[in-house]
């Protein structure tokens, strides 16, 4: 499953890159709400929870807005990007009831598999509002109650949410943001530098990657830069199309809207694509240097797990755990032929589970324990015992 972004028709002015304090706060609240999914941030989670214990109940009320389906309210909607959280919160405070409903109602429902009625129809007492509330309730009691409050009094809920966000900023986020922001801004400058590596003037008539006369040029296009930024992204087909590994199927034509890239330190391992607002398409991603290395595509993960389903390959892994071993020695230990062992090693090596190094005329193989460990402690313990 994947989302394909079609970047054709985008010019230099249609791409913006920069951190967003509000988006980062949302990502932080997601980690705080689902700590079991973010063991890599356990230390930060404990400190943030201890800094604002009085916020727990209110954060729980609004938690559906920063669950897996992130509410569009927390992402940029205008260029240039806001300079501060204060500016982003002020923009929320200025929203009308209908605009707030339009941005928040899909986030409360929390899925794009079901349509949400237009905001003008979500008035208390209408059939559309009652049906919407029932659908949210079927997903969870928390979503149903939040939907009921949203429909009944959108501006009251808006102000209550703003109070929660400001209190979270005071309790733990402001200090955290002072630490995170410089690195994210440095990262954004580097991405802008890559995007600016083009001929002076307008993009070529033939689009990125071609000169005005149609002759190919070597400069990187926005699609090239995006695939460099995102470990699970890949170019597909003709044109400026990029496939993103996501648990949904969609093809998004970005232009004539701008594309906004929002680097984050807290969003890992998630990649968020927000396409529903007419103002812009937003991609929030983990900036390099702020996340664990080695993020996999679903296909790569499948290959690694399948490589371990064979009892013979699992036995081979157990021999390779302690020391580097040659193919011939492995064959002798296992009572197999060298061609059989070579085929098993090739499968494991192609999956990234074994590393082979040459030592003179010999080639020695060893288990990539760091890769196995990232698959899970139980997998490594099974190999090791």
How is this fold's topology laid out?
Elements: E1 2-6, E2 15-17, H1 21-33, H2 42-51, H3 56-62, H4 85-93, H5 97-109, H6 127-139, H7 141-152, H8 154-195, H9 222-229, E3 233-235, E4 241-245, E5 250-253, E6 259-264, E7 272-274, E8 281-286, H10 298-307, H11 311-320, E9 325-326, H12 327-334, H13 338-350, E10 354-359, E11 362-367, H14 369-375, H15 377-384
Parallel strand pairs: 1-5, 2-6, 6-8
Antiparallel strand pairs: 1-4, 3-4, 7-8, 9-11, 10-11
Question: What's the short version?
Answer:
The chain is an alpha/beta fold and 385 residues long.
Describe the structure.
With 385 residues, the protein is α/β, with parallel strands linked by helices. The chain has 15 helices and eleven strands. The strands form three sheets. Strands 3-4-1-5 form a four-stranded mixed sheet, with helices on one face. Helix 1 crosses helix 8, helix 6 runs antiparallel to helix 7 (141-152) and helix 7 (141-152) crosses helix 8. The longest helix has 42 residues, at 154-195. It is elongated, with a radius of gyration of 25 Å. 31% of the residues are buried.
Entry keywords:
385 residues, alpha/beta, 4-stranded mixed sheet, 48% helix, elongated
Order of strands, widest sheet? 3-4-1-5
Please provide the ordered H/E string of secondary-structure elements: EEHHHHHHHHHEEEEEEHHEHHEEHH
Q: How much helical structure, as a percent, in the residues?
A: 40-55%
Please mark out the parts with pLDDT under 50 across 5 or more consecutive residues, or reply none: 208-218
Query: Which structural class do the helices and strands define?
Result: alpha/beta
Q: State the total count of DSSP E strands.
A: 11
How would you describe the shape? elongated
**Span from first to last CA?**
36 Å
Task: Return Rg in Å.
Answer: 25 Å
Mean pLDDT: 87
> What's the story with the biggest beta sheet?
4 strands, mixed
């Amino acid at each position: 499953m994947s989302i394909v972004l079609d970047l054709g028709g985008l010019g230099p002015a249609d791409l913006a890159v920069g951190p967003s304090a509000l988006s980062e706060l949302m990502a932080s609240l997601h980690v705080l709400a689902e700590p079991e999914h973010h063991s890599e941030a356990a230390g930060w989670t404990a400190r943030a929870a201890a800094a604002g214990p009085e916020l727990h109940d209110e954060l729980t009320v609004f938690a559906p807005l920063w669950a897996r389906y992130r509410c569009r309210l927390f992402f940029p909607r205008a260029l240039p990007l806001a300079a501060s959280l204060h500016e982003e919160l002020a923009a929320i405070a200025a929203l009308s009831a209908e605009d707030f409903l339009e941005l928040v109602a899909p986030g409360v429902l929390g899925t794009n598999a079901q349509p949400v009625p237009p905001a003008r129809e979500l008035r208390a007492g209408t059939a559309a509002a009652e049906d919407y509330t029932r659908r949210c309730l079927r997903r969870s009691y928390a979503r149903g109650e939040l939907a009921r409050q949203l429909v009944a009094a959108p501006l009251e809920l808006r102000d209550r949410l703003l109070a929660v966000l400001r209190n979270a900023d005071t309790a733990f986020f402001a200090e955290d943001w002072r630490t995170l922001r410089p690195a994210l801004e440095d990262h954004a400058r580097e991405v802008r530098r890559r995007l600016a590596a083009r001929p002076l003037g307008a993009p070529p008539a033939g689009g990125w990657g071609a000169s005005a006369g149609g002759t190919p040029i070597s400069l990187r296009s926005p699609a090239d830069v995006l695939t460099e930024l995102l470990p699970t992204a890949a170019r597909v087909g003709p044109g400026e199309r990029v496939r993103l590994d996501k648990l949904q199927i969609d093809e998004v034509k970005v232009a004539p809207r701008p594309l906004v890239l929002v680097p984050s330190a807290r969003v890992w391992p998630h990649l968020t694509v927000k396409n529903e607002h007419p103002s812009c398409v937003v991609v929030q991603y983990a900036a390099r240097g702020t996340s664990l290395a080695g993020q996999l595509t679903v296909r790569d993960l499948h290959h690694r797990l399948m490589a371990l389903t064979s009892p013979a390959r699992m036995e081979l892994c157990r021999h390779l755990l302690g020391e580097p071993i040659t193919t011939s020695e492995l064959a002798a230990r296992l009572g197999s032929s060298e061609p059989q062992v070579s085929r098993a090693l090739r499968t494991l090596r192609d999956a990234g589970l074994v590393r082979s190094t040459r030592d003179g005329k010999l080639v020695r193989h060893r288990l990539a324990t760091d890769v196995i460990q990232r698959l899970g402690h139980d997998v490594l313990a099974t190999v090791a015992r």
